[in-house]
Amino acid sequence: MVIEHGSRRLLHCNVTEYPTAKWTLQQLREAIPCEHLYRFLIHDNDNIFSTELDTSITRLGINVIETPYRSPQANSICERVIGSMRQECLDYMIPLNETHLRKIVIEWVSHYNLSRPHSALGPSVPDPPPGIPMSIGHDRHQIADKLKVISKPILGGLHHEYALAPD
Questions:
Q1: 121, 146: one domain
Q2: Are residues 145 and 103 part of one domain?
């Protein structure tokens, strides 16, 4: 899982039953564009983060920082996202196989980036939809005439996304 800290946006997420250093490096290559502004990669001491992987990432101009052993708080942003994914999604769904799990995760990541409120963002979303059809004024509990709230179920109805639309 690759997270852009400033906006709490998930840049890349994938699933495999057998993660390896080679697979992890490929995921990082897919997530990090050639022209990037990233300065650091923070990771734990798992075997999938090999010396070769760290060397390859360093060649991209990114400093590699390894978290101390048994210190999940040192990588708290990633730990929080993984916890959110589990609590809001995976604790309620039973993936049938790797492909099914990948589809679930892709849908949750889209929800996380596009419509799930983030209290750290005040509560906003990392990638808000363009053109909200009305400005939100002082009275947030009234909707302007000729507009209605529409609900779209996601993850099989586990969550819902809401928007305003013409009546």
A1: no
A2: no
With tokens 């939100």, the residue in question is 136
Q: Which amino acid is at 107?
A: E
Looking at the structure, tell me whether residues 23 and 72 fall in a common domain.
Answer: yes
Q: Which residue's structure tokens are 């928007």?
A: 163
pLDDT tens-place string over residues 14-42: 999 999 989 998 998 888 888 888 888 88
Sign of CA dihedral 76, 81, 84, 86: negative
pTM over 0.90: no
Residues 66 and 110 in one domain: yes
Pick from 104, 143, 109: nearest CA to 126: 109
- Over the stretch 60-97, which tens digit does the pLDDT of each residue have? 889 999 988 888 788 787 888 888 899 999 999 999 99
